[in-house]
Amino acid sequence: MELGISAALHVSQTNHLMNIRSFVGVSSAVLLAWLGATYFHEVPPERYPKQGRTLSSSEKTPADERIVDIDPTQR
User: Fold this and answer.
1) How far is Cα 35 from Cα 29, in angstroms, rounded to an integer?
2) 53 φ, ψ (degrees, to nearest 5)
3) CB 51 within 8 A of CB 66
4) Which of 1, 38, 58, 68 is most buried, judging by how many CB atoms fall within 10 Å of its CB?
């Protein structure tokens, strides 16, 4: 009888772990989808990162011009 209870307890714990893993997996997927949808909805396309090339001086945006190099010796 002792072995039967132990086996039942093991099966119960295994099912519980599978439920937790399923919850974490589904929650992660939902969060990723929500963040992706929010990013593409809220961020204008011209702010998306450029892939595979650098910006020429004529393509720079005003945000790029605000970056200033600070010389640490000038403090």
Assistant:
1) 10
2) -155, 160
3) no
4) 38
Residue 69: alpha-carbon gap to chain centroid: 30
> Residue 63: pLDDT above 80?
no
Is 67's pLDDT higher than 70? no
Token pair listed for 32:
């990723």
Least Cα distance to 14 among 25, 3, 22, 4 occurs for: 22
46, 61 Cβ separation under 8 angstroms: yes
- DSSP letter at 72 equals G
Position 36 pLDDT exceeds 60 = yes
Token reading at 75:
């403090």
